[in-house]
Amino acid sequence: MAGSLLILASKLGYQTRAFAEAAAELGLTVAYGTDRCHVLEDPWRDRALPLRFDDPEAASLEMVEFARNNPISGVVALGDRPVPAAARACSVLGLPFHSSAAADICRDKYKSRTVLQRAGMMVPHFFRVPLDAPFPATAPFAAPWVLKPLALSGSRGVIRANDEAEARRAFARIRALLRSPEVRALRETSNDFIQVEQYVEGVEVATEAVMEHGELKLLAVFDKPDPLTGPYFEETIYVTPSRLPDLDQGRLQEALRAAASALGLWHGPVHAEMRIAPGGGIFILEIAARCIGGLCARSLRFSHEADLPAGSRVSLESLLVRLALGHPVGSYQREPEA
């Protein structure tokens, strides 16, 4: 392949190297855009474009200006924060990506939950509380509750509370997290609220998928063998392929397809956390316009008979780079081994 890939990532992002290596294997040149200080002169010696992901409009203008002299064939955004800026830049540059409206909605758990609820999707009951307000003396639905920040990822600050006393303690703990210098430096208005949701019993899974010009392709379903009942929801062991019955996996796929459509996701990765309730209902807990990260991403390999030697496989990063360039990935299949 020929062309140039723009990788948008946090300056401390841990997935950047894997995507850069995937792009190099495909013969692409790589440029970077990160949220580093614009005053320092290339501290990492990678000639990255300094961007402020808290201001996606300004960041997208910087990318469009950069592309005038450095043609870009595709954009990948690693993690949640760069996605709104990437969506705006791709819209101007005519590159396939999720819409800016969908990207903005997915960055805020309250907004995304509201859209899904209005679309008739099964979601937990929820409300949000301003950071400076107390936990309400009367909640609109009974405990147990799950309290969480609206924009942090990796289950950070997600706490179950079984009664009002536990909820007040959890609220104070999350408030302290959201007031920390580290989080305030992100300059995201969604961090001025804490969301309260009704706890949903059931089997939790993670799903990894892509949208390709509006069509969803499910890549993997991850089982979570450890019971996720709280009070905290650490991400520990993920297993794929899922051991759920094919019927349940098909229902998960249809629910994810409906959720992605309701949010307006169009082209790019989709990662979601879902629960199958005891009665069989499928609840959307979280949905993001990004790929899964870390070791889970490295565990996924795909094959495609048409353009790969027999027995060879490509990484998730390689598949997503191809998708960003507009190459079809619908016929790629995950390897059968666990």
What can you see in these coordinates?
It is globular and about 60 Å long. It contains ten helices and 15 strands. Helices cover 30% and strands 23% of the residues. It starts with a strand and ends with a strand. The model has no long low-confidence stretch (mean pLDDT 90). It has a four-stranded parallel sheet with strand order 3-2-1-4. A four-stranded antiparallel sheet has the order 5-8-6-7, sandwiched between helices. The longest helix has 18 residues, at 246-263. Strand 11 (268-276) and strand 12 form a beta hairpin. By secondary structure, it is of the alpha+beta class. Helix 2 (56-69) packs across helix 3 and helix 3 (83-93) packs antiparallel against helix 4.
Attribute tags:
single chain, 338 residues, alpha+beta, four-stranded parallel sheet, four-stranded antiparallel sheet, 10 helices, 15 strands, 30% helix
Q: What topology does this entry show?
A:
Layout: E1 4-9, H1 16-25, E2 29-34, E3 49-50, H2 56-69, E4 74-77, H3 83-93, H4 100-106, H5 109-118, E5 126-130, E6 145-149, E7 159-161, H6 164-178, H7 181-184, E8 193-198, E9 203-212, E10 215-223, H8 246-263, E11 268-276, E12 282-288, H9 294-298, E13 301-303, E14 314-315, H10 316-324, E15 333-334
Parallel strand pairs: 1-2, 1-4, 2-3
Antiparallel strand pairs: 5-8, 6-7, 6-8, 9-10, 9-11, 11-12, 13-14, 13-15
Helix pairs in contact: 2-3, 3-4
